[in-house]
Amino acid sequence: MTTRTVDPTQELAAFLRSRRERLDPDDFGLPSRRQSRRTPGLRREEVAELAGVSIDYVVRLEQGRGLRPSANVVEALAQALRLPPDERAYLFNLAQQRPRHADKPATTGAPPLARLVTDLSPLPAMLMNHRYDILAWNAEMARLLPDFDTLRPSQRNAMWLCLMHPAMREFYVDRERVVREGVAHLRAAWAAHPQDQALTGLIAEFIAHDEEFARLWNERDVKVNGRGGKVLRHPDVGVISVHFEVLMPLEDPDQRLLIYRAADDESQSALDRLCARGEASLP
Questions:
Q1: Would you say the C-alpha torsion 227, 23, 94, 179 has a positive or negative sign?
Q2: Which part of the chain is the HTH cro/C1-type domain (predicted)?
């Protein structure tokens, strides 16, 4: 399985089909008639009625026949399919009905942001772009992630670390959820940056070398996580529960500032021990 530069028409068709098939007719008060339903979810005519468009229009959209729906039609389809905010934004991006982000992502951290990452110590922090490339980090983050600061620049990518780095295979206690959320983020970024060949190549590499990523990518989940929690299994200090926050600077919207905070006293104690180990190893 491979992926190429985004073909918005074909991806729009596949996305609409996948979201229609996920819906339960019972949630809409529609007759189930399950014996006569040959495919899961709503029928095309039911989506057409809910969106206020013709059945033929929905058919042509789902067949990828070159239509570019207006913003009003996209909004009507999003409401008919009951898309959550991230999936609604994805649909608008595919329909090319909202401004695109810059297709030249940052490859180095903006100096003020890189200084901010350092100033955030002792909180572990790092700076990334939409591809999850890691642009800057502080000492605490380097101590938290295995071998993080010894990697080649091409390997300093949060998703690459999670999927490809041997030491990271058991690093996340809830690995499946972390990978799923990472895939959902990359799919949103892929639609928003259709000309980003580096991102396309990265996704193709993950699909080719990681079965879990390939399976999740094919599910077409879309989600951008700006806040949440993770449980880390550090080889030196044990389990650490963290809350994370992702901030997007107005001056540099392609850069994302990730900050970790200990979720409980035991985790704070583990982070303190980790920092003390790092300071003791300094010359």
A1: positive
A2: 41-88
**Structure tokens that stand for 205 in this block:** 């590499």
CATH code that applies to domain 111-280: 3.30.450.180
**Cβ atoms of 188 and 86 closer than 8 Å:** yes
160: its two tokens: 């690459």
CB of 85 within 8 A of CB of 95?
no
- Which neighbouring-strand residues pair with 228? 244
Give tens-digit pLDDT for 220-268: 999 888 899 999 999 999 999 999 999 999 888 889 999 999 999 999 9
Q: What residue type is 19 in one-letter code?
A: R
Structure token pair of residue 206: 């993950």
Length of the chain: 283
pLDDT per residue as tens digits for the range 149-198: 788 888 999 999 999 998 898 999 999 999 999 999 999 999 888 888 99
Please provide the CATH number assigned to the domain covering 8-94: 1.10.260.40
- DSSP letter at 157 equals B
How far apart are alpha carbons 17 and 59 in whole angstroms?
10
| DSSP for 41-67, written as a single string | S--HHHHHHHHTS-HHHHHHHHTT-S-
Q: Is 56 exposed, middle or buried (0-12, 13-18, 19+ CB in 10 A)?
A: exposed
For residue 8, the tally of other CB atoms under 10 A from its CB is 16
Specify the pLDDT at position 150: 85
